[in-house]
Design a protein that fits this description.
Layout lengths: L13 E2 L5 E2 L3 E8 L6 E7 L2 E6 L5 E5 L16 E3 L8 E3 L1 E2 L14 E8 L2 E7 L14 E7 L4 E6 L5 E6 L2 E6 L5
Antiparallel strand pairs: 1-15, 2-15, 3-4, 3-9, 4-5, 5-6, 7-8, 10-11, 11-12, 13-14, 14-15
Length: 183
């Protein structure tokens, strides 16, 4: 694990942008589906408010700089959720991160994410193409080291419920990968 370099995620995964999305004071993230076009949406909760991003484009589509204090962080709700905004206003979004919770660690067609920390506190995110023992195969042939959190604290790692988006959130940013429907 220590010797495995960070490599691009394999096909069909592709990064949403060449850089991560900077989010200072990130507390957690959650997923929702856009009611009009079905795109995965990523809701980000930070110390500076709430934001909503289109996971396909990385575009910020809604922002609330001053959410109600009783709903500004997910720990205020028993189910670790925050109110949606923009096109998902009126819905609640489960948030995973600093206060607990979790995202999907696998997809229905066999992609799996794993966080390992052989050099703690620097977490590594591994993507594998099957739920079998991926580390028996060579790096790059069954598992890929796709993210190394050596600059910020890891907050949440997981797939959207649709399985089309993969997200890694740290205390300072979000990195997204997507794949086309049907993969």
């Amino acid at each position: 694990m220590l010797a495995a370099p960070v490599v691009p995620a394999p096909e069909p995964w592709r990064p949403v942008s060449e850089r991560c999305i900077p989010i200072g004071g990130l507390l957690g993230i959650g997923f929702a589906s856009h009611p009009e076009n079905g795109h995965d949406l990523v809701m980000v909760v930070s110390s500076a408010g709430h934001g909503l991003f289109d996971a396909v484009t990385g575009e910020k589509i809604a922002r609330d700089y001053e959410p109600a204090p009783e709903e500004s962080t997910p720990d205020a709700a028993p189910d670790l959720s925050c109110p949606g905004l923009g096109p998902i206003a009126g819905r609640r979004v489960h948030i995973a991160g600093l206060f607990g919770g979790g995202l999907h660690s696998g997809t229905g067609d066999g992609w799996v994410l794993e966080v390992v920390s052989p050099n703690w506190p620097n977490d590594r995110v591994l993507l594998s193409s099957s739920s079998r023992m991926p580390h028996r195969e060579p790096h790059g042939e069954g598992w890929w080291h796709i993210f190394h959190s050596n600059y910020s604290e890891l907050r949440a790692v997981g797939f959207s419920p649709s399985g089309r988006t993969l997200a890694v959130a740290t205390s300072s940013d979000v990195t997204l990968w997507i794949r086309a429907a049907g993969h």
